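Annotated sample (chain length 408).
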Amino acid sequence: MNFEVFIARGLLSGKRFSFSKPVIGIIIFSIALGLSAVLLSVSILFAYKSALVDTMSGFAGHLQVSVFDGNNSFESLPIELDSVYVRRCLSLPEVRSVSPVAYKSGILKSGDEVEGLFIKGIDETYDEAFLQKNLLSGHIPAFSSASQNDSILISKATATRLHLQVNDPVKMFFFDDKITRIRGRKFIVAGIYETALEQFDRKFLIGDIRHVRKLNHWNPLQISTYEIRIQDFKHIREVERKLIQFTDFDNDVKRIDELYPAMFQWLQLHDKNVEVIILLVSLIASITMISLLLILVLEHIPHIGILKALGCRNACVRKVFVLQGAYIVGQALLYGNLFSYSFIFLQSRYHLLPLNKASYYISYVPVEASWSSFLLINAGALLLTFAVLLIPSFIVTKIKPLRAIRFS
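Output written by the structure step:
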């Protein structure tokens, strides 16, 4: 066994009373708590961002392809539904689905209550997984029948404001700019959903795309946009570049972060919060570890004198105390990781900590075990430990053997 390791283990495993033992316990707890704070902050941040991106892309797609006309409203000029283009999009390994969508603005009326909304027209190819996941009551209408379907999905916010329930009839009025008059349609509420994102729940209802085409005087192959959903949001820019290569020059490919920039800018602010937490925890941990080694050196001054008298060089004695500090910090890292992983497992399984869905867009605190980030944080903590422990270890070089042996 290495000599320095043998001495360090002997000093740590001493059975006699030591004034440093309760202090070391507090230091281990402090470092473990700080590491847990960093790991859980990163875990919650990644999971929260992922949950919101999944919600936004589930409703609007990761990318949208529409006419390039500078019109930022949903009622843009139509594009032709091209089956060849759809197949080419689906041939990309990163693409999960391609859905044609059409929009028309109108006024939904129920009794004396009215609400301005867009009807989002979809067909049988639409990816319904997100709608099914967020459906509160009722069912998702089948838009694959030969005739157009009069059933619609409305959000919980709309249902509350207009006092609507499943199977209730409701009228929606549209302005026809070609014949300059108001046209009405009667719908049946088939289901009620909730995304918790106000920009979706307060603006849209979902219906048959054939209604929208008729109201817009479009032919059966015209749509407002393609909604493209991909396997992983991390590859969105790569997919965008590939789509641009074979998309017509008069069509525009837009990412979801370009369509809803305010939401993504708000999410980026959370990155700053985590950076501040990591900085503060690193600073406090550095001070704690310096204090730890100073306490160990102070307690073992007589042992330092004996080791030097026996011929140990300064580097050897320094290594003994650095190993002591590293062993104690290693314990703290172990406890911090165990607590963090236990919390992540319990929270992801049982949702112990709830959130106000109206404020945070999700009903519980999301967590995600990002192994690469966790390994990086632990590696950074170990490097910081050794770097910081080297600083107070230089005190050992100033201790004289004769005076140290007499120290009590």
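Annotation: The longest strand covers residues 95-110.
Annotation: Residues 20-60 form the longest helix (41 residues).
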